[in-house]
Amino acid sequence: MGDTNLFQPLTREDKISVILYRSGICISAVILGIAAFFAVQGITGNDLSNYPFIVSGLLLNILLLTLYLSTGMSVFFIHLYIGKFHRILKKIYYLSVVCLAVLFFAGNGNPVLPLFRTPPNAALLLIPISLCLGFVTAKEAFCFKLLEGYLLAMLMPVYLFFYGIGALHQKTAVFGLAIIAAMFVFFTLRKVFMPVHYDIGDKSAYQP
To answer: What is the pTM of this model?
Structure first.
């Protein structure tokens, strides 16, 4: 479980690392929320042509790239007592970046485009980034009893798998994204207001 005691004074570097870690979580939540909002708009009869930056794919590409950046912030600045777990997490993130490069290639510079083909098999390439986010939420669930973190860790890759093989109807896919986004926002609101020292714990217990 997480240590909620203040074991030692926090350094400037400690505070910055926590801010960056939590900022990554917050940005990821905002991105998922925006994506879910426009996905719901698209199936409820609202004319998305009023949003040319969506139709062109510009906003979606920006959101996708920002999600990779925000997830990377959380991955590299997460505080884990066991160094081996952190190294594994980084390797999964590097794999996700390779998958992003494949999306760029498949979409001729438009990485979002392959995600909406029929069937959207390219969505399977997003599973590694979802595993990174899931690791973060599961770690917080384990340490601070944010139980929705466990659900997110399981739901995100499972959702992408079934979406990627074309097993989800359009409305079901949108509903699933909305549920995940809502849970992630709830998780974020419960996490980011915790005292900063919660994320640091006992530095003498860190393993290389």
So the answer is: 0.92
